[in-house]
Amino acid sequence: MCHFNGPEGKKKRDILKRDQIERALDMAGEPAEITFAGTGEFLVDENAVDYMRMCADKGHKPALLTNGQLLTPGLMDEMLSIGTRQFFISVDAIDAKTYSRVRRGGKFEKILSACAHLRERQSLYPDIRVQVSHIMFAPPQTVADEIVNFWRDKVDVLLLRAEYYDNLFFRNTFYPIPRDRCHCPLSLTLTPSGHISPCCAMTLLQHMYRFPWMPHIDTHTLDEASTLLTDMYNAKGSKFNHICQKCQWWIMFYHRPNIGSPYSRTYMF
Ligand code: SF4
Predict the structure, then answer these.
(1) For a pocket test of ligand 1, which of 183, 199, 214, 253 has the largest count of ligand atoms closer than 8 A to its C-beta?
(2) Using an 8 Å Cβ cutoff, are 264 and 159 in contact?
(3) Tens of pLDDT along 180-232?
(4) Which of 13, 156, 206, 250 lies at 20 to 30 Å from 195 by C-alpha?
(5) CA 18, 205, 71 angle in degrees (round to 5)?
(6) Whole-angstrom Cα distance, residue 127 to residue 206?
């Protein structure tokens, strides 16, 4: 659920309405882990915690994807009391100066404090998982070891990812992008406009462009959206398939035995 197209969004700001969020949560079916996120930052919405509470009240597990800048001990404790256990924090740096540059004035110490607080709370809630996501702005051979060693004693999971550029393309991959592209398992995201995105690439693109052909939460169930998007994905010449032809995000799902993915490495500490 990516409900907010915030201050850094290049197009008109959008925000999901409460009834749209509720409708999506009601349609999510079996108890599911629902990740709340936003362009800019989900937590700038004063209703953010209420939505996570609504999610938990409906039997789902709320998870948070955040840049971490607005996390305070009180807010984290409130989210923990609701039942939030998965905290995904996008960092992309291991020092204050780089962090401030990459995250436009962000304070790196806030991230370290948030990670330390959540890890300390594991004595009360052992199932808390603190994950940081780190884009590599240089080849993995030159930066991966240093990044892994930095986070080893501060978080539970580190996701090291290749860098995307021009929205659809990648560099600094773990090995050259294969020629034999693979299938993308579609995963629905409710976006700030109410449209339902089929994948990470489209979720990224919808922050900059309108895609009226994407199904909408006001007019489609999640099942209908899934069927429609799957059909478009498979239909050569469809507007969605046309984007797929250029897109390299499929490397997220590509795995080679004993080598893994060109896109990412996950480190569990
Ligand atoms: S190729 Fe890109 S746009 Fe197409 S489904 Fe995969 S991630 Fe989405």
Answers:
(1) 199
(2) yes
(3) 999 999 999 999 889 999 999 999 998 888 899 999 999 999 999 999 999 99
(4) 250
(5) 50
(6) 33
